[in-house]
C-alpha cells in the first residue's frame, strides 16, 4: 500500500507538475513535428518520481513549491524523458512499448526519436537558466544535472548495461551500473531539492544518503517487477531482462535475496531520515515515498 | 588563399585548443569504451572553426586567451562533435566517412554512437560550469548554448533538413533551415567571444551581425563544395546532397547565383566590422577569417 500522505501529495502536485510541463512545451519555439514528438513522450504519463522527489523534499523543509521549484522539477522530467526515448531505440534496448503506448521511434520514426531526445536533453539545461533562481544556484544545478546525466553517470551506466549483456557482472559491478544508470538522476533530484530548500550541509548529506539508497531500491524493485509482473500492469514489455541476458539483481541473487537487498536499501534510506526527524524536520512524506517499494503491493 | 594572419593565428592556437580538448577528455571519469568513442570523434581533426572564432574574437578585443577561454571554446567543440556524430547516424544522414575517417557508428557501433553523442552534449554543459568564470557568465553561456543547439536552433534545423528531403523548400525556408542548423552555433561562438571579451552592447550587436552572415556564408560554401569538390579533398562523401534531394543553395539557385549569394553574405559580414574598426578595434583577424570562403581556393 502506498502511504496515504504520499497519495494526497501526488494528488495535489502531480497535476500541477503535468500542467507546468505541458505549458512549457507549448510555448517552445521548435520545428512542429519535433515538438509533437517531444510532447508525446513527456506527456505520456508515468509516475514522475524524480520531479516529485524534488517537490517532496521542498515540502518537507517547508520550502514553498513555487514556479522556480516546478521549473527545476520540470527540467528534470524532460531530461529523464530524453533518456527513455534514446534507451528505447532499436540500437539500444529496442522497445516498442513505454508507459502503455508506442515508444517514440515506433510512433515518429527513428531519426525523429534521436532528435526528440537531443532536443529534450538540451532544453532541460535551457529551462534551468530561465528560472528566477540566482545565477549561482542555476550554475550549481546545471553542473550537478550534467554530472548525473552525463559520462560520470547515466550515459556511462547505459553503455555498461549494453556492453554487459555480453558478460556476467558481479554484484559490485551491477551495483555501480545501477548507481550510474538510475541512481545518479535520483540523487540529483535530492540534491536539487536540498539546494532549493536551502538546507545546511549536514542535512543535505542525510538527504543525499536517502537518495542513494532510494535509487538503489528503485532499481532492484524495477528488476523484480520485470521478473514478476505482466505487460498489462507495467505498460512495457516484461521478462525482457532475462531474454536479453541483462544483468539484474534477480539474475544474480535470485528473487528472495533480491527482496532482502531491497529491504536493506529501504531500511538504510529510512535510517538517513532519523537525524533529520530528530532535528525537527517532518520526514513523514519522504518516509512515505519508500512505500513505493512495498512487497505487498506487487505480489 | 587563406589570409596569412589567420594562418599564423591558427598555427599558434589550434594546437593549444587540441591539447586542451585532449587533456579534458583524458581526465573525464567515464565508461572506457564510451570515452574512447567520444575521444575518437573529438580528436579526429577538423578546422575547429567554431572554437577558433571564440578565440579570434577574444584576440581582436585584447581579451587574454587563457584557460577559461579555452574551456568555453572546448565545450563548444564537444557540442559540435556530438551534432556530427548524431547527424551521421544511419537513421539520419547515413554517412560512413567524416574528416577522412570512419564515422563514429561505423567504428564503434550505432548504440555507442548515440551514447557518445549524448555524452558529449551533456559534457559540453558540465564543462561550462567548471570554468573559473563567475556564475552569471556561466549561466548566460549555458542558456545561449542550449538555445543555439536545441529546439530553437540546431536540432530543429536538422529535423527540417530530414523532413525537407521529401519536399522542395523555397529560398526563405532554406535560409531559415541553414540559420538553425549551422548558423545558430556560429552565432553562439560570436556571442560567447563577445561575453568573454566583455565588450559593450553596441559592439556585441556588430559581432553578432558578423556571426550571422559568417554562418550563412559557411553553409552556402559547404553546399557549393559538396557540388564541386572531391571526396579525397573533403574527407567525406560529396555529391550527397544532390543524390538525396537535399535542399541546397546550388539546387535552388544554381552554382553561379550561389556564389553571388555567398559574396553577399561575406560582404555583409565585412561591413559589420567597419564600425568596430572605426572605434579602434583591430578587425584584421576577423576580416581574414572570411577568406575561408574565397573562390580561388577551391576552384
Question: What does this molecule look like?
Answer:
Two copies of one chain form a homodimer. The first copy, chain A, is mainly α and 299 residues long. Chain A has a single domain (4-293), classed as Farnesyl Diphosphate Synthase (Orthogonal Bundle). Helices cover 74% and strands 1% of the residues of chain A. Chain A is built from 15 helices and two strands. A two-stranded antiparallel sheet of chain A has the order 1-2. In chain A, a hairpin with a 2-residue loop joins strand 1 and strand 2 (101-102). The N and C termini of chain A lie close together (11 Å). Chains A and B meet through helix 2, helix 6, helix 7 and helix 8 of A and helix 2, helix 6, helix 7 and helix 8 of B.
The CATH architecture of chain A would be: Orthogonal Bundle
- How many helices of chain A? The count is 15
Radius of gyration of chain A: 18 Å
Largest interface: A-B, 51 and 51 residues
* SSE topology string of chain A: HHHHEEHHHHHHHHHHH
Amino acid at each position: 500500500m502506498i502511504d496515504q500522505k504520499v497519495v494526497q501529495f501526488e494528488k495535489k502536485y502531480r497535476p500541477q507538475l503535468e500542467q507546468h510541463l505541458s505549458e512549457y512545451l507549448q510555448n517552445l519555439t521548435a520545428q512542429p513535428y519535433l515538438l509533437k514528438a517531444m510532447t508525446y513522450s513527456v506527456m505520456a504519463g508515468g509516475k514522475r518520481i524524480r520531479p516529485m522527489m524534488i517537490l517532496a523534499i521542498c515540502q518537507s523543509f517547508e520550502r514553498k513549491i513555487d514556479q522556480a521549484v516546478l521549473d527545476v522539477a520540470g527540467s528534470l522530467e524532460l531530461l529523464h524523458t530524453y533518456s527513455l526515448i534514446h534507451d528505447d531505440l532499436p540500437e539500444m534496448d529496442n522497445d516498442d512499448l513505454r508507459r502503455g503506448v508506442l515508444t517514440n521511434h515506433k510512433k515518429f520514426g527513428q531519426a525523429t526519436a534521436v532528435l526528440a531526445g537531443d532536443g529534450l536533453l538540451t532544453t532541460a539545461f535551457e529551462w534551468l537558466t530561465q528560472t528566477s533562481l540566482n545565477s549561482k544556484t542555476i550554475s550549481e544545478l546545471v553542473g550537478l544535472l550534467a554530472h548525473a546525466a552525463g559520462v560520470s553517470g547515466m550515459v556511462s551506466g547505459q553503455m555498461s548495461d549494453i556492453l554487459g549483456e555480453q558478460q556476467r557482472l558481479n554484484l559490485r559491478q551491477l551495483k555501480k551500473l545501477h548507481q550510474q544508470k538510475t541512481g545518479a538522476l535520483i540523487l540529483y533530484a535530492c540534491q536539487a531539492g536540498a539546494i532549493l530548500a536551502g538546507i545546511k550541509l549536514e542535512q543535505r548529506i542525510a538527504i543525499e544518503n536517502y537518495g542513494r539508497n532510494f535509487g538503489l531500491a528503485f532499481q532492484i524493485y524495477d528488476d523484480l517487477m520485470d521478473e514478476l509482473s505482466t505487460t498489462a500492469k507495467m505498460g512495457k514489455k516484461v521478462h525482457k531482462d532475462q531474454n536479453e541476458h541483462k544483468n539484474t539483481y534477480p539474475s544474480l541473487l535470485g528473487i528472495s535475496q533480491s527482496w532482502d537487498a531491497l529491504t536493506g536499501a529501504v531500511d538504510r534510506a529510512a535510517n538517513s531520515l532519523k537525524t533529520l526527524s530528530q532535528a525537527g524536520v517532518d520526514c513523514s512524506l519522504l518516509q512515505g515515498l519508500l512505500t513505493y517499494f512495498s512487497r505487498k503491493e506487487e505480489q
